[in-house]
Amino acid sequence: MDRMARxxxxxxxxxxxxxxxxxxxxxxxxxxxxxxxxxxxxxxVPPPKPIAPPPKPAPQPPTAAAxxxxxxxxxxxPAASGGFAFDRYKGTTLRWMVLSAPWVxxxxxxxxxxxxxxxxxVTIDSETWIEKLLPILTAGSDEVDFFxxxxxxxxLRFSEAGWYEEMRKFVDDSSLTAGDYAYGDFFQSALDxxxxxxxxxxxxxxxxxNFYYYRKDKxxxxxxPLPDPAKPLSLEQFAEIMPKLTKRDKEQYGIVTRGGARAxxxxxxxxxxxxxxxxxxxxxxxxxNSPSAIKxxxxxxxxxxxxxxxxxxxxxxxxxxxxxxxxASYINTxxxxxxxxxxxKCGVADQVGVSVMPGGRPYxxxxxxxxxxxxxxxxxxxxxxxxxxxxxxxxxxxxxGLPPVRKSTWDEPEFKNSAAAQKxxxxxxxxxxxxxxxxxxxxxxxxxxxxxxDAIGAVVLKAAGGASEADVRSAADKLVDQMKExxxxx
Length: 490
Known about the structure:
490 residues; alpha+beta; D-Maltodextrin-Binding Protein, domain 2; 5-stranded mixed sheet; globular
């Protein structure tokens, strides 16, 4: 760490030591893993130890105020470029630090296309990438040019540390962005997940969201119409059909979904948003005791209590309950779709249908590609991100089985005429509707996300336990005070 970086840690009471930052981000990574895993992990993710900020320094004269690490100067552009050209930074070598994922593998398989198009070489570093990335950014080093990130796990800390290059200026520069890039083609939910403090800090990759899975045979036996893949049931309609699908004396449940305090947040958020609630009100105060929030606790709690199997915890294997035929429907992440449709893994696979979440507002998640503010190769890095997030690679994303983040991808002839599109039209219709209605801000904007999830989930579970609305409202008032304290923790 150079002298300036050491001064930031020493003099800025908002800054964190490298060890504290690593500790905090490790805990937040657990929050994302818990939210997006096919089912809660066998052992609960322990909450991170609270990270105390360094003590405030003695007052200093203005001339002694600490300054953030200086961002690297912009890469010089070739003279007389004559407008946009992908190869204007030919001969550059970039380093990308990124997680291992099927989407990244898809880009690797087509990397020669980018190199031929631009003359830029890209080194992809995925081994212990985050452990290596954090010290590099902490030091203000130009060792990495761009990296993978996401809003819920890294957004707040990276933004406060000054580790994101604002990217809208690249998008809007016609000398750096191809005329057919079509920034407006991204789903708004995908762009929302890349906005941190109202700044565009990355471009989205692939989509993750909730699905409403259902048993066709159980719906038909109960005389309940099958849900439309792209037209969500209202929450009121959902509540009307659940009793018809629930036979508790026969261990037949209308719904199975996440019921652990920490794990349920990305499911419950749909109820909060549909009922008109949000994390905070227009004045910036926590709104988790608003009438809309109270209704969301009560209704999600009623679903767990009246129509779901008893004893759901963070460790419950929800896939097993559904695949053993004990539930008529199931709410969970889209990533479990292949498992539920595999006859070798799921006993009811041939009866599984899919639809957009009841209420139409599922949680939405996407990793995004961000540029380091310390690199001297910002424009060259943008060339790669532009290529990776363009229409052609979104089509590849969809054809590889991952949900894309562009609207036009679904209308590409190569996809529409494919066997997969013909066979699985209901699945793809449900995906489009889910992404279009996605809620990007499904986690509260605090450092200690796990603590916040525990606190909010406890109120939902109080309602699930049969507490009166008055008692739930009292618990929500206390929750607001808890959130104020959690918000102060770094």
